[in-house]
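Bug #2210: token dump truncated for Histidinol-phosphate aminotransferase?
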Amino acid sequence: MSRFLSTEAACLAPYTPGEQPTDAQYIKLNTNESPFSPSPRVVKALSRAEVLKLNLYSDPTCGVLTDAIAARYGLRRENVLAANGSDEVLAFAFRAFCGQGRGVAYADITYGFYKAQSALFGLEATVVPLREDFTLRVEDYLNFPGTVVIANPNAPTGIALPRTDIQRLVESNPDRVVIVDEAYVDFGAESCVPMILRYENLLVTQTMSKSRSLAGGRVGFALGSPELISALNRVKYSFNPYNVNRLSLIAGAAAMEDEDYFRDSIAAIEKNRAWTTRELEALGFTVLPSSANFILAKSDRMSGETLYRTLKENGILVRWWADQPRIRDYIRVTIGSAEQMAALVDEIARLLDM
Ligand SMILES: *Cc1c(COP(=O)(O)O)cnc(C)c1O
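Reproduced locally. Full output below:
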């Protein structure tokens, strides 16, 4: 480690993103991106005229984008905060709602960024094991005094929690913030967005990275009571007032307005998910029930590590976690196009035959 590191930076636990190779041509099923390009409306909105305005700062209130988001969910501007991906939303939320005397709780198997951000902000983190079958027991969190973060559906399991469970958690202590990370909710889980008008302590985060094909545009947002949103703005204006760039504001608004394209993309992913699940089960895999655009699966004949490595050698990238004993036998496969899924299944069938 560098001698230039501050004590605080030496204590960080940086998140390791999935590989983004630039050399070989891989079938990329490792980072839960959409296999589809953004909506044609996005392409049209990103005009030369807009590029020529890049000499000007972006709108710090993210007006066009927050309005499009608010309209889509039947909310007001005061209920929305936009950011550079939901990772940035989560960072603002961790800084705003956790700190001295107010720790954070999350599951042992969940999105790795919660741990990374807890370390970044020096928070006391309570890690709560999921059940044996990887479902989350909401009872485990009811008495926790700090902030609770739940990914719903969870990642990388894909398992969804019923909205009524989250409602119990939110109601059990109105003075505690509950953050529900709905990065994958559009693929089949129950959203808590309709609850935010009733509960001032519920913050929902979403992203355009998965269901709206804008991972590279970095657009995420938080939905919540005006009280929570203004707390997030306090952090944002202490960090990066012009957080979302001009082109992403426009791209995000256009993506949010193309409901037909959104629905078609989701339908295709759900269809391909069902197909891939059936095919892998026929090859002897155990596949966790997924409400997301990925599946967590394990073979009865090949370790997760061997699957990951051999698939990679053969041009298919999936995700595997060496440092997570509970899911070491599993691989996580992003649901791509029908062609990509057929290629994956063919390759796995061939590997198991050898
Ligand atoms: C992908 C993901 C995010 C963040 O995505 P952004 O690209 O930063 O919007 C947040 N939470 C979970 C669980 C994710 O998988």
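Output looks complete on our side. The CA atoms of residues 46 and 340 lie 29 Å apart. Marking as cannot-reproduce; reopen if the truncation happens again.
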